[in-house]
């Protein structure tokens, strides 16, 4: 087992510097391959910039995240372009973002790129804006770009030409990133950060029960984070960690990063990650997986899952995790309640359930805990899934309550997933 495929925890050491019809599907696959090759080239060019990947629902009073965005953009007076392309109401969304970033000290402005903006003849303006020299020149003097939330497919529509190549505006954004600028995005604006993104995904359970199709559930993203990493958002509150797994497996993406709401992960030079904000980040590692899905349904064996919260850091190359300085190693069972936690979680896709499970596991004498994902409705698909979380020799946990709430860091938990058949009805009235 190579050390590069394991998560290691580093304590007290600084981080190192730094996917219709058959033919249409084939075309889309080729386009995604082209984007992937472009992203590999960018990595080789040593991108100097940073990313602020926000899980959505970022509160305006979350000063620690907003201030950090302005700081990484260059500090007070930093010029930040707001791109509201994903929004159903780009003008309102864009102006709100301009206002809030100005309140935190940035010189923010609206870049009117959206399928919703129309000219006097009722035609979309984005095909002109994405190659307009006015905006291309302005980006040369801009230090950050912020993508709003909404529908991520709207972003890629206005920034890729029909043949899948980058528009001049997207190239200008990449230039900003290469020279050391910040690319920020929330919700849909976070989804576009990886080469592959969810596009028209159904529910988490539906994604587990059915095949993944390039050009339908997933599509090409903008790839700022570099190759071999998959990004998802609204992660913990919506149980979306589970929908990442079949995409990563089918597209052979070894590392997944899922960020929760009101939380950001800052990534520097496509290598060093830091968690900032209210909740945290789920890290999924499929480098050691041993069993893949079959016709009987999605299944996975020997993956690794970790959880990082505010202040934690991760080296995306070495996989070394550095807990925040205020956290202490969990050496023994922390409370009498820890060994009284349920051994089976009936809905692992529920709000925060996966974090609760692995946090309870790491401070419990138990060696493993299980969770289920299924639809209890009597007329629904009987295919469900068992998630088996197990401690390994590498499993570690850290804890802090200095912020007034419980903050955990959990690393190296083994995750196996297997399909199960639920009985219908699940329960009956006692008569």
Automatic annotation (TrEMBL):
Keywords: Carboxypeptidase, Hydrolase, Protease, Serine protease. It comes from the Bacteria. It catalyses: [L-4-(L-arginin-2-N-yl)aspartate](n) + H2O = [L-4-(L-arginin-2-N-yl)aspartate](n-1) + L-4-(L-arginin-2-N-yl)aspartate. GO terms for biological process: proteolysis. CDD domains: GAT1_cyanophycinase. One of its GO terms (molecular function) is serine-type peptidase activity. The keyword Hydrolase applies. Its EC number is 3.4.15.6. Coiled coil: none annotated. Belongs to the peptidase S51 family. Exopeptidase that catalyzes the hydrolytic cleavage of multi-L-arginyl-poly-L-aspartic acid (cyanophycin; a water-insoluble reserve polymer) into aspartate-arginine dipeptides. This is Cyanophycinase. The lineage of its organism: Bacteria, Pseudomonadati, Pseudomonadota, Betaproteobacteria, Burkholderiales.
